[in-house]
Design a protein that fits this description.
15-stranded mixed β-sheet; outer membrane lipoprotein receptor (LolB), chain A; 15 strands; single chain
């Protein structure tokens, strides 16, 4: 018995569907180990700018005990050496006061003590008996001594993501695929020759709308700083990332900060950001040759012609 044309078409269609059901493969998309059923949050550029401003305004002071993992090298050079088990203390007070103290593993002697107030910083390195002073701006050509490339401003930029400056323009894009679900806010500035360049990018996780990354670029488009934020928790009622991973590829170092104990918006007195040169240490002004003699003037001798930072 022959099939009618219509019946034949229906039979053929059913056969194709059955075959397709055998060949088709369903993929379950998971992002950042989140539940597959978790829906993505939506936000426009205005929402993202509001989130940055809200987070920035929420923190006036920060006092934290941190686990530090410093690293020398970079992805660009293809080699990174990590140094684990460094305990540190971070003090921050708006707008730009910061102190970072690092302790050696096991013995917990002071490895370094660094203070930044305004445009200048001071660094005491007990193991070398050196007291270093300089400006927060990095060198155009990084120093072979990685320690000299470290600036408090690097940590200051990473701790709190600042809102764009009034003259800067912004644009947002949706970066969502099988592996990623993020919004990226581009902050544009004007460089030499009135050329527009991307000064910063701020990344938001679309599962939470928390900031998960901030990249800072120079006018040539090269990465100056790449900070990643994870494990957001509420400290004293303020959301803050527990892990901050900072990389400085051009300077050849990085550091991962894991917050162990945190106090936010508790009073911090000004004397906590005072660091004077210890007597008997060698003074080094970055950009100049180290002094050939130890400091011959006590820190309190106002008549001594010593280099002072501007507070």
């Amino acid at each position: 018995m022959e099939l009618r044309p219509v019946t034949a078409v229906v039979a053929l269609s059913c056969s194709v569907l059955v075959l397709a059901s055998c060949v088709a493969r369903r993929r379950v998309i998971t992002r950042n180990k989140a539940a597959p059923a978790q829906s993505l949050l939506t936000a426009d550029k205005h929402d993202l700018l509001t989130l940055i401003e809200k987070q920035y305004k929420a923190v006036d002071t920060l006092n934290a005990t941190v686990d530090m993992v410093p690293a020398l090298g970079s992805v660009i050079k293809g080699k990174i050496t990590e140094y684990k088990d460094v305990l540190g203390y971070v003090l921050f007070k708006k707008p730009d006061e910061m102190r970072l103290i690092g302790l050696y593993p096991v013995v917990r002697n002071k490895a370094f003590d660094m203070v930044s107030r305004g445009a200048d910083f001071r660094l005491f390195v007990p193991s070398k008996n050196e007291f270093i002073v300089g400006r927060n701006e990095p060198f155009d050509v990084p120093s072979p001594n990685k320690l000299e490339n470290m600036r408090p401003s690097v940590f200051l930029d990473a701790l709190l993501v600042r809102p764009p400056e009034p003259q800067q323009r912004t644009a947002s894009v949706d970066f969502t695929d099988e592996d990623n679900a993020a919004y990226i806010l581009h902050i544009l500035d004007t460089g030499p020759g009135s050329e527009t360049y991307i000064a910063r990018t701020v990344w938001f996780d679309r599962l939470t709308l928390h900031i998960v990354r901030q990249m800072i670029f120079d006018p040539k488009g090269e990465i100056l700083s790449d900070a990643r934020y994870s494990d957001w928790k509420a400290f004293d009622g303020v959301p803050f990332p527990k892990v901050i991973d900072i990389n400085r590829p051009k300077d050849g170092y990085g550091v991962v900060l894991t917050l162990l104990k945190v106090e936010i918006n508790k009073p911090i007195s000004d004397d906590k950001f005072a660091l004077e040169q210890p007597e008997g240490t060698t003074l080094q002004v970055l950009g100049a040759k180290p002094s050939t003699q130890p400091n011959a003037h006590p820190a309190g001798d106002s008549s001594a012609p010593r280099k002072k930072t501007t507070h």
